[in-house]
Each structure stands twice: as C-alpha cells, then as structure tokens.
Description:
By secondary structure, chain A is of the alpha/beta class. Chain A has helices at about 5-10, 10-25, 25-35, 55-70, 90-95, 120-135, 150-155, 170-175, 195-210, 230-250, 250-280, 285-295, 300-310, and strands at about 45-50, 75-80, 105-110, 140-145, 160-165, 185-190, 220-225, 310-315.
Amino acid sequence: MDLAEEALKGSQLAGARLIRLLEDRDPVGIEGLKALYPHSGSAYLVGVTGPPGVGKSTLVDHIVAEFRRRQKRVGVIAIDPSSPFSGGAVLGDRVRMQRHATDEGVFIRSMATRGQLGGLSRSTYETSVVLDAMGYDVIVVETVGVGQDELDVVDLAHTTAVVSVPGMGDGIQAMKAGILEIGDLFVLNKADLPGADEAERQLAMMLQLREFGEKDWEPRVLRTVAVQEEGIVELVDALLDHHEYLGKSGKLAPKSEKRDFHFFVELLRAGASEKILKTAERSPGCRAVIEDLKAHRVDPYSAAEALIERLQCEI
Amino acid sequence: MDLAEEALKGSQLAGARLIRLLEDRDPVGIEGLKALYPHSGSAYLVGVTGPPGVGKSTLVDHIVAEFRRRQKRVGVIAIDPSSPFSGGAVLGDRVRMQRHATDEGVFIRSMATRGQLGGLSRSTYETSVVLDAMGYDVIVVETVGVGQDELDVVDLAHTTAVVSVPGMGDGIQAMKAGILEIGDLFVLNKADLPGADEAERQLAMMLQLREFGEKDWEPRVLRTVAVQEEGIVELVDALLDHHEYLGKSGKLAPKSEKRDFHFFVELLRAGASEKILKTAERSPGCRAVIEDLKAHRVDPYSAAEALIERLQCEI
C-alpha cells in the first residue's frame, strides 16, 4: 500500500512521511499529494498569528483541546521562524502540546522557515492539503507574523486570529500598518495583566478606523488568559461564527479556490522559469550577455531586460 | 541634475530617494540603478547576523565608529524583521545609532522585511549597489539570521560575522545546523557575562567539526563587550584580515560576480515568468485548465505540469 492510501486510512506515520517527502521536493511526495488532492477541500483553516511572547502556543494548545471536546479532528502546523537559533523556548512550547501526542485526532507538525525548498507558504499549503485529505476538520496554522513569507502563510487561512497582549503600546501601533488588515478576530491574551482595558480600547479604536477587510464581518476583540484556560470556549465559538459567516455569505469556496490558484500560479512560475533558464543556458546570445555581466560591462537589470525582450514563448 | 548624478556627487538625500524609488519598483529608480552600476564594485560588504538580544545594533554602532576612525566611509543596511510588531526596542536601537546622523561619512538605511516588493535580498542588493557607487568603502548589513530571505541577504556579504552571547546553550546547538556554515568570524558578545569561557569552548569545538566553509580560512572566535567598546578594534582588524585574505586568494571578485549573477538570474526568472503568465492568460488551453482547477477537477500540481509541458520558448 502506498503512502497516500495509508494516509487516507488515517496513518499519521504515512502522513508525516509524505509531508517530509514534499518538503524535500521528492517526486514520490508530489505523486502522493496529487492522489490526496481530490479528498481535500473540506477542512477549516485557522491562522493564529502574533509577535513572540504573546502566548500563541499555549493558546493553540487550548484551542486544540476545545475543538477535540467538540469532536473535531485537528491538525496543527506550527511555524517556527527562529529555528536556526531557537533558544529552547520554542522547543518548550512544542513539548507543552505533547499532551495531544497520544490523541489520534490531533496531528502536530512543526516547520522551520529554513530548508523549506520552495518556500514556507508552499510547504504550509501542501501540509494543509495532506491533513485536509486525511480528514482533519480544523487545521490551525500558528505563526509569528513577521516577514512576507509569514504573511503569505496567514493569507492561506479562512479565518485569521491576531494575538496581542496588554502593554504592547507601540507594538499595537506598529501592527496597525501590517497585520491589522488581515485579522478577522483579535485576541487579547494575558488579559489579567494591568492595562488590558486600555489595550482593548486601543484595539477596538483601530479596528473602527480600518477601511479594509470584509465589509459585512465586524472584527471582534476577545479576551483570553490562555494559561488559565479563560476565554477559550468563547474564542472557539467566535472562530466557528466566522466560519459560518464565510459559508453563508458564499465566501468559503472562493477563499479555498484562491489558495489553490495562488499555488498553481507559483508552480507555473517556478516551472516556467526553470525551463527558460535551461533554454537561456543553451543560447549563445545569452551566454554572451552573461560574459558581459561577469566583466561588469553590463548591469544585471539591463542584462535581464535584454534577454526577456528576446524571449519568445507560447503555451 | 538627476538623482543618480546627485548621489554620485555625495548627496545622501538623493541616495535615500533613489533607494526608496527602488523599493517601490519605480522605473526611475531602476534607471538610476543602471546609471550607478558602473561606479559600483569596490565596496567591502560585511554581514552581521545573530538572534535577537545579542546586541547586534550596539556592535554595529561601534564597528561603524571604528571604521570612521580609520577614515573609511560606512553604509549600514539594518534589516528589521520584527517591524510590523516592533515593540520600541528596535526603534531604540536605531536611535542609538543617531550619533552618526550628522556624519556625512555614514549612511544608515533601515529596512522592514514587509512591503519590500521583490523581496528583501533584492532590496538589500540594490541598496548596496547605490551605497557602493556613492563611495561608501564598507557596507555593513545587520540582520537577524532567521528565515530563508534573511539567509539570502547574508549570502550577499564578503564577510559574515555571526554574533552570539554566553548562555545560549541550545541556541548554539541549533545554530550548528544553520548559520554556522556561513560565518567567517564568530563574535561572542557580552563576554563579561558568566559562561563566556564555556561558550567560547563550545563555539570553537563546533567550528573544528565543520566540514564546510573556506578551506584556507580558519574561522575565528572573538570576544566583545560592545556596550563597553571592548574588543571592537580587534573585531574590525579581523574583518579586514578576512577582506585581505579574500583579495589575496582571488576570492573577492568571484564573490561579487556571484552576487551580480544571482541577482540577474532572479530578474530573468521574474521577468520571464511574468511574460509567460501573460501568454498563459491569452491561451484558451490554459484557460480550460484553470477552469478545471477552480472546479477542483485537477490538482494544482498536475495543472501546472500540463502547462509547463506545453510551454515552448526560445531566447
């Protein structure tokens, strides 16, 4: 039996191996993904993002537990941008989640941002397709919301929860420019800290000013104290409200379509540019341009433009 | 007079505007870059990388001051990955550098990792070409070494200094897999903290084990206490030793060539894939595949492969 079949029958081991093969761009992994794809398309993707130290991992841990109480199977894709340097904290976070380790209804996958050939968003997309096809109802993508790569990842989710804590002050101001526009829910974690009311007021105010986002979904601010499991039920309710809203307003399918299409364009782009680079290597005109470039006789811009000008293509 | 000419005559204002136009992918910026390119090629690029909290900004501040004492003009490209959330600390770091603000021999440019169309490494490359052409002798690129994008940036430098602090323990272990292989110098900052000897021993041991890197350059471990300006002179000496080593061993020019070539390939890739996507949009066969994709009748992999198979190109 092949990996895709085993994964479809529920083997976490087979799923994990497939994901690893995909990360390595192994053709066996890609064949597996193609086999799984028709079985995907029903999972609910939740993005949980926020700066380091706001307690995302603990929050995700409890979100997972709450979804389990509601009989949902849950996948977690935890993206760990600090991996090359991770100072122990991140490992500790992962360990905390190990209470789900013996639960067949939970699949946890950590990803470093390094060594993901083809980028983080591709790996996250592929992993989500695998988990989706394996029948995980909810897939939580946990990520530090910094860097374009990371934001691309967030963009994959149906619902995005942005996590902050009281006392971020300038931090929240800075968020305004970036992450505010992609949030559907705003979680104020550690809401037992001083300054929670003020922080909630600030968040609410900035949300009133925002001119982007869904017109008919009012972004919500929710308070949690993840370490004490406070506010988790309400948070999961709010996630499901947003999911329901997307379904009822006909926005769920287009979001999934957009994700597939985005990925397709990326693949097309990558494959096409490989083909073109190979063509360029064989072209004497191109080799001459490269010689000029190496000798500093032409700048990279002009060199690339000249070749693109000459490029003829047809599909 | 145009921006490129003004920049060449030393106008920091013109240089800054050109960099901004390039970040916005404005054609005026690109024309400026082409004009500046022939004047570039002599700057020494130093990468300073390491996890948050090791004191990179303070270190860079003092490296700049030391190069100034040696009559070198210095550009700094500070990459701030936490920008969407920056909690004040980063701003504080920038402020610390302001003692160079009135020094015409220093040019400091901060970059967020967000909103850089075309990626961080492209912006860093372009900025370094501008500063290089403007006659800055040394360009220091300061970055948190996380994420592929960031490592691509580090890859642009002639010399890379990896900064850590005593007591990182697991962190250094984790570095092993990632950043160790790209370091030419290893700076143990805050070397007055307990555990410095142990940390230096660990670093030295791991460096002995590494099988990569330049065969004839022995990576060095240097101790600094940046806030007390200790070890800075020795660090700058070591940087210049490495620069000299690259020059004498004939490795300086190939490193620069590689940088230009890498950038050229990226531009060719991007330009070619744009052209192909436009061709694809006009192709009825391609439109049919996209319809199948939207209807979930075909997976993104098979869809992209089918089109790439059909792609004909010529340069």
